[in-house]
Design a protein that fits this description.
With 141 residues, this protein is mostly helical. The chain is globular, with a radius of gyration of 14 Å.
């Protein structure tokens, strides 16, 4: 099954953007973490379904931080942490603004919930691919 088809399958199960990104990342690493998937649901629909910042942008940042962020009291974030987040958010903002007029869910869908079915799976797929690309370039996966 290709990535887009997997995104569509997860959508049919009722998952939204950030949750799908988390599931894809967990599948990629061979991990399971239902708590993480549930928590990522708070970013869906533009942060708590507010139609603000797209859950793919916030979810993508979380995905990158999963690999590069600080996770232990005595640990440290990877030296590239802020750089990769900056690279990703710049890419996301440029792409979404060029294609949809902004980075908020309401910009992308024009306030029409039916547009989510049409647009979001491609945005989720592109976001995951970009995150993987960045992580591969930095040797983190």
């Amino acid at each position: 099954m290709d990535l887009f088809d997997r995104v569509m399958e997860l959508s049919r199960y009722g998952y939204f953007c950030s949750q799908i990104l988390a599931i894809l990342m967990l599948e990629m690493t061979g991990e399971e973490n239902p708590g993480l998937v549930k928590a990522m649901g708070g970013l869906d629909g533009g942060i708590g379904y507010s139609q603000h910042c797209c859950g793919c942008m916030t979810g993508g940042a979380c995905l990158l931080s999963y690999f590069s962020g600080k996770g232990e009291d005595m640990g440290f974030e990877a030296p590239e942490h802020k750089t990769i987040l900056g690279e990703f958010t710049k890419w996301f903002e440029e792409e979404m603004t060029a294609d949809y007029g902004g980075i908020d869910c309401r910009d992308i869908t024009g306030g029409n919930p039916a547009k989510r079915v049409e647009l979001c799976p491609q945005i989720i797929t592109a976001t995951f691919e970009k995150c993987v690309e960045i992580l591969e370039e930095k040797g983190m996966i």
